[in-house]
## 1
Amino acid sequence: MPSQPHPFDPLSPEEIATASVVRMLSSLERPLFRVITLSEPPKKEIIAFLDGFTPPPKRIAKVHAYISKDFHEIFVDIEGRAVITNNILDGRHSHVDTAYMKQVEIACLDDARVKAEIQALSLPVEATVIVEPWTYATDGMNDMSTRITMCWFYMRLSDHPDANYYAYPLDIVAEVSETLEVTKIYRLPSGRDESINNDEKLYDHSKIHSSSEYHPGLSTNQRTTTRPLHVVQPEGPSFKIEGNHIIWEKWTMRVGFNYREGMTLHDVRYDGRSLFYRLSLSEMFVPYGDPRCPYPRKGAFDLGNDGAGLNANNLKLGCDCLGHIKYFDGWHVTSSGDPLKLPNVVCCHEQDDGILWKHTNFRTGNAVVTRSRLLVLQTIITVSNYEYVFIFYFGQDASIHYEVRATGILSTAPIDVGDQVPFGTVVAPGVLAPYHQHLFCLRIDPALDGHKNSLVVEESVPMPFPSVSNQFGVGYVTESNTVTEEQGLDLDHQKNRVFKIINENKTNSTTGTPIGFKLLPYYSQMLLAHPSSYHAKRSEFGAHAVWVTRYSDDELFASGTHTMQSLGEEGIASWIKQRQNDSAKAGVRNEDIVVWHTFGSTHNPRIEDWPVMPCEKMIVGLKPVNFFDRNPSLDVEVSTQAKNKSVLVGEQRPAGMPRL
Amino acid sequence: MPSQPHPFDPLSPEEIATASVVRMLSSLERPLFRVITLSEPPKKEIIAFLDGFTPPPKRIAKVHAYISKDFHEIFVDIEGRAVITNNILDGRHSHVDTAYMKQVEIACLDDARVKAEIQALSLPVEATVIVEPWTYATDGMNDMSTRITMCWFYMRLSDHPDANYYAYPLDIVAEVSETLEVTKIYRLPSGRDESINNDEKLYDHSKIHSSSEYHPGLSTNQRTTTRPLHVVQPEGPSFKIEGNHIIWEKWTMRVGFNYREGMTLHDVRYDGRSLFYRLSLSEMFVPYGDPRCPYPRKGAFDLGNDGAGLNANNLKLGCDCLGHIKYFDGWHVTSSGDPLKLPNVVCCHEQDDGILWKHTNFRTGNAVVTRSRLLVLQTIITVSNYEYVFIFYFGQDASIHYEVRATGILSTAPIDVGDQVPFGTVVAPGVLAPYHQHLFCLRIDPALDGHKNSLVVEESVPMPFPSVSNQFGVGYVTESNTVTEEQGLDLDHQKNRVFKIINENKTNSTTGTPIGFKLLPYYSQMLLAHPSSYHAKRSEFGAHAVWVTRYSDDELFASGTHTMQSLGEEGIASWIKQRQNDSAKAGVRNEDIVVWHTFGSTHNPRIEDWPVMPCEKMIVGLKPVNFFDRNPSLDVEVSTQAKNKSVLVGEQRPAGMPRL
């Protein structure tokens, strides 16, 4: 870490240690630390610093801790080693506590009624029962002021610790209280409707099968036909990194990281011009479509409840990335307040991406071709069964792409052999993979040549026909509307609806239009849950694909700051509603705005997603539109064999034959 | 070439030479050959051969040639060296003849009135006037029974032969007849409407600028920061290729190539199971949205008029592709009937594509990760100013992706300095890049475990609420409809509308549903031209995103077989209309069907697309849905550093510093 941290730098381990000064707050009980993270300075302070007018703002830590069972939010002045504010967050819950969840598992398996219920199943003798504790998605059936954990049951049928227990969902479920008591245990519905056969308690041994293992230690037929492919960079990578500052091919940016959002990007510039103040995944929600009680309780906020940072994988050289790789570590805090390293949570490397641009002059036969090099910033998270790969790609043409890959293992539920339901897919005998959605919300805080930006909705529309100015019926024009009030908007590919972020104060001298960037959205179905459902009220961002709000330092999380067992109506739609009719607060034209893009997948599982899912890709883009004065990648060096050293394949020996 | 060609193999040079036996047809005049290509055998004959029941069908050549000014279509039995049929295609035109186009240019520049008009412009002394001849998109203003060529004028202001003349569109246009006479020369509109200032003849010298060159010989500031990146495959590629047959990671397929479609794929199988009989780009249309006469004549069928095969680039090792590359040559015919080699028109190589699948067992901490290797089949075409990159990607997970990249130079028109129009972008002084669309039609001829397939439209819909079976308002189900009649259909991401090709005769034994593949469409605006326009009548496929038809040997080209100056109403919608109400012909349920996907871009140019355009990507996918019994890439070897040999980046020297 640099000695003088940049305002966007995450807290260093030394700073985390300093912030644990809050241990002093209670002489009786040691705080149980949940979070010590950077409290990002107010934007106006950072801008003043970035513009060179002021020294860096104070380093402030935000601390979440339980002290005497109260959930505290404490702000600490690092340099001053002093608590600034200390509040109890009444009725709020901290994000998932893995230590607590482990206790829940143990308590559940120790419970006599649970034992009896398992006994009644008459499982195979080699079975090991696994309890998978899940947070409780609010459904109106219980008081949410204390934690309730849903315990789903599975079994493992092999001694191998990585045997896939999701292949054996059992039809019992338990609810565990804040105080680790099993408050309910009951059978799950296992057929078309909610009816439960309480007479037939026995596990159906015909569900036992052998096709659901993914671990190489458990599968016999590994293909051996894929020959090695190395990315070799004889002169090293093209990027330069100092601390969290990355310089690459005219791009500069700062990488941030926190327990909740994971990787964040700050002060993103191209060729010295400001583009984005902050880019981050704001939230994600995974609601399940199985209507049968208690399945509506399956609905995970993987950022707000679990933390993309906390669950970030320790990326491994040569496994998760090829070529020359720079890794970034993250820092968190132990429950006792000590700095905790999260190693290799972000990787940075380059990729070749095929042709960047090409033209052959047909008159001279001369081809000019350039290859596209990308800067890749990747993080991967594991949230119980699923994994998500989050990647920012920076292009030499000043484009940014954000890719999400969903992989991992489907969440499963039991189903009677031979049965089918219209809200799930049977992926193995007795294994239902229920339909669900993955809804992501990308937060785009633009700063295109300054902080006063606007959102324009542009459509391509046919000119009236017949008309004097469109005699042949082929004419079309673009029609643009600048959004004036905060709102949610929808995509419409049939109108080629384009969302452009522009700076109305800067005109492109050639095109005569404002400089801008456009969003290349990922077309997705929005939330399917009914607007009056808790799912909908809790994930307001899922109602529209594009949202625009006036910037506020407090609004980073589209479903609100505290999602754990939240009751809803504290997300992006609620912020907008609160400010509506107050143009001083809700006006978004030529103001400091934030654009949010909701996208994802309605994931109705295929059997090909089982037992582990090949990545499903979702890609969002940001591209300059009349921002520069021409193709910003025009100066990329022409591609040559001398530089690229490819190899011609001539006559071949068959694949799989002995190696040369 | 193998001694015994496979029925899908393109004609060998020897076969082309044999087919020129048709020279004998006229004792008086030597034929002017335009095409000698494989006439693909009827599907039923090929199936009988593939299934092992019959020897390979006869090799038949289709020959297009002008003989005594008549346009002939001749079928020749190769082995028998005999003409089978010989017909004159009355009222039809062959695809663009570059030799003729060159004659048009010369005739145009030789014309006295043209010379006078150029003289009147008073161009800079260093100017070289360039005539860019374009085919005439039918607009109802002329008789289309003879060829008319539109000649657009540009100038080059540098001695460099690759100076970008599209940067200097002149405001004159000429029309040239079949017999090389300039029939009209007139001024182009250069402002908001069609009005033409015939008084002001002088070229506006304030349009001269220096920012529009793309050739490295003409630009001074090449960036030098991009360090080399090599793809090294120490054991060679994982594919095996014999002739046109490719074997790679459980995939097998045959690569075809012809003058019109360029690359085609045949008999595509995974793990021995039949998936697709034929995959090809059927047609593409590029209509311009500038309504001012004569611009509605800009509307190019780049396959039917120009030929994706004929215009395929000679791909260069290390420039157009990295790693170990196998190239395929194409063969065409000279005007005198000799075989003409089109070298390196298709390249085949492998790419790494990041994570294929990953799961970390949070209980054991054990991560299992595999990397995705792709097989890439790429072809690139140049059609005057534009280039298109067409790529098939095959995945280890049995997915196929088809990617189109649009690059090259925008077609430009003159505009008065300081003016703007709502149907184009000013990209340089006096240079208008008019709005236009690129509409592609991918032809998908499925053979999922056999040739009787169906198309299903599936939507994800919320369950009724409130209702007993959906108490919490979160339930949703899929609703499926099997298409019974030929038709065009539209996309609807808001309903998560999914198009599945299924085989109703084969049930997945685990899911209990028919085996299938789903289309991952590229969401695009359809044709903007009015349905009664010639553009719309000629490009019927542009009206809907997905079409399903009953297979017919004659229906490969969605805008009809002869698009040059066509009058329309002979494309996919017309085929369907002709057969409607005849269920014996129009039924598509459990029949041999073809699915067509129309996609593309409404390309309203950005200045960043100038003077050469960074690739715009459009991607379509095909993925198995309950076709296999589990993830078909489950057996891919786990990713290890031992195999992948990545390099850790530690402390860095700054980029741009002297190399080590």
Note: The CA atoms of residues 58 and 77 of chain B lie 7 Å apart.
## 2
Amino acid sequence: MIFGAILAGGVGSRMGEDIPKQFLDIEGKPVILYSLEKFLQSPRMDLVFIGVSEPWLDYTRELVQKYLPENAHRVHIVLGGSGRNDTLQNIIAAIDKVRTGDPKDIIVTHDAARPFVKLRMIEENIDAALQCGAVNTVCPAIDTIVMSQDGVTISDIPNKLLMYYGHSPQSFQIDLLKRLYSTLTQEEKDILTDACKICSLRGQEVALVKSEYTNLKITTPGDYLIAKAYVAAGIHLQE
Amino acid sequence: MIFGAILAGGVGSRMGEDIPKQFLDIEGKPVILYSLEKFLQSPRMDLVFIGVSEPWLDYTRELVQKYLPENAHRVHIVLGGSGRNDTLQNIIAAIDKVRTGDPKDIIVTHDAARPFVKLRMIEENIDAALQCGAVNTVCPAIDTIVMSQDGVTISDIPNKLLMYYGHSPQSFQIDLLKRLYSTLTQEEKDILTDACKICSLRGQEVALVKSEYTNLKITTPGDYLIAKAYVAAGIHLQE
């Protein structure tokens, strides 16, 4: 089975607004709906789980009923945890209750604040996860990447041609991810918020799917401006 | 002496427009004017050199006369080279003809397509270059940075807390940069388009100055949208 996992547990403190960024409005529709609709467009997607913080549970349920009444039976709302990892673990626990247990069952995880994911990326994530076990969606770095151990002087400037920005979706064979996660110490669980990094650290091959620069994560008020400009320009409609 | 070096040699092929991105209009003013004005605001800046490709030489001279007639004597237009390094070398050659030769003479280099540099960054670049010899302007990475040797699978996900996006200005003691550049092989000159990387490779300490996310480089049509939104929001007026 194939499951979507939209991570919407964030409370959006960096935006300086009352509403978490995944619930901000863009032309009459909350940000989270843009990616949720794309996930539901995938014919292979059995169910999409959304992890949200407690105060937003009912609101998210209402959004799904309002915008996607015909698909509401394919969407499950789950209580998120205190961080990204916890939210993902809560979703996996909820998935475990409904899945048949095929070792090739796939979870396609996605940031709720990345509204411009394309169906093509989701499909390629599923294909690559079935084949390789773990997948990240990335695009080549635009800026030179600079490494600094102390934040004061440069330690290294790695070859830019080898550097990518890590976006989402990130996809995994569920049993594989659970197995790797169970090997983490508590300290590692606190540090490792990126599930692909967990795979990489434990020697699990992670395949790359091509992202696009438009697949931005809304983090700052500037990003929100960009996202609104993208919707005005029809970026969300591009295949 | 302190010299500005605005690198405007690019021809903007990635924008899919006829006009290089540094000459695109934002609210009645070409992109390059935004950073040029900031450079001229620095009281320590003796002269600002602009390196442009041959077809844009006269146009750039006219822009300076039109928008900055009272400061035109502080601006020198220089023919750019085929790449970023060549343009920088042409500017350094032109500076060598006017400078007194103080070993602490500084060059503050900047991308013409980064209109939202702040005077604060320029001043901190000068201070740090006087002290350390080489400076990069950077901000903490937003996306997880992923390294891939083959573009197919992940090789490494370095610790995000140590990763920065390299912006500009980049500043150098001129004699130091010339000395390091003279040690490069032709192959290295072709590969190393980033002067801070040249310093880093040769063991020269490079200090960091804090950039901001708004200090974006206009590379794609989406960036141009953002830049116009930033000007509409008054970002270019912020100290």
Note: The CA atoms of residues 9 and 83 of chain B lie 7 Å apart.
